[in-house]
Specification:
CATH class: Alpha Beta
Number of helices: 9
Strand content: 15-25%
Distance between the termini: 38 Å
Shape: globular
CATH superfamily: Bira Bifunctional Protein, Domain 2
Largest sheet: 8 strands, mixed
Number of domains: 1
Number of strands: 11
CATH architecture: 2-Layer Sandwich
Length: about 270
């Protein structure tokens, strides 16, 4: 339980990223792979919808014009724009101590490692323990903190979501590094431009990037990603007294991920299912 796999993954398209997370979930749940921390990025930018979110929250014409992919996650929550960010996924068998109890209890445990990582990066973050009101807050995930998500001065910094299937637990989440946190509104559907501008203002008030909260942050996005990835790896190792072995997806996982990217996460039937 204390020997984990660490995957530093290259940025790829949204459908393949979700396929990889699910392939890891299946392998870990079946006992074929150890608990896994995957750190990755996205190219091109991708707007992801929560599992139960309405697809008509997205303005697909605008998203296409912007060059964004659109994908539906296997986890819940609301829309996230994945661009200049570090994304993490933690995958565990259901009998792992970190996964024990309710979803909220496992969120709390994982949030201690995320908080440790942000502290290492210089962010004075706190775990928000309020009940989730995301469903009532609008289409954007980062508008409102959910259970044990990380905030700085009341502004959400890491958004996470979890699913339990195939004998395993997958939690993944996003740390925006730089850029305009409200850019997501450019690809969402609004009845008027006035509503779009109001949504942008809400997102900027309620959410932040790492650069927003670190006055002395320097370097390009690639450098920030490397710094954040190192902080996440060290934080998980120290928080849970783990040792990591760096690896890649197995051949079987890679094949399953590619198939899922085509048959599920890249399929309009999946993306437009609600």
């Amino acid at each position: 339980m204390r020997q984990w796999r660490l995957i530093y993954d290259t940025p790829t398209r949204g459908a393949l990223n979700m396929g990889r997370d699910e392939a890891i979930l299946r392998a870990v749940g079946a006992g074929q792979q150890p608990p896994t921390l995957r750190l990755y990025g996205w190219h091109p930018p991708c707007l992801s919808l929560g599992y139960g979110q309405r697809s008509n929250d997205v303005d697909f014409e605008r998203a296409t014009t912007l060059g964004w992919d659109v994908v539906r996650r296997p986890t819940g929550g609301r829309a996230i724009l994945h661009s200049e960010e570090l994304t993490y996924s933690v995958t565990l068998p259901t009998d792992h101590p970190i996964a024990a109890g309710s979803v909220v209890e496992s969120y709390r445990r994982i949030s201690t490692a995320l908080l440790n990582a942000l502290t290492r990066l210089g962010a004075q973050a706190a775990a928000d323990q309020q009940a989730s009101t995301i469903q009532a807050a609008g289409a954007v995930c980062f508008e409102t903190p959910s259970h044990y998500e990380l905030t700085v001065s009341g502004r959400k910094l890491i958004g996470s979501a979890q699913v339990r299937r195939f004998g395993g637990v997958l939690q993944h989440g996003s740390l925006p590094l730089t850029g305009d946190i409200a850019r997501i509104c450019d690809g969402l559907a609004f009845e008027s431009e006035a509503e779009r501008e109001a949504a942008r203002a809400r997102v900027r008030q309620r959410a932040a990037t790492l650069v927003d909260v670190l006055a002395n942050t320097a370097g390009d996005t690639a450098e920030l990603w490397q710094q954040a990835a190192a902080a996440f790896m060290t934080a998980f190792s120290e928080t849970f007294m783990l040792t990591f072995e760096q690896a890649q997806l197995s051949t079987e996982e890679a094949l399953i991920a590619a198939e899922l990217a085509q048959s599920t996460y890249g399929s309009p039937a999946w993306t437009l299912r609600r």
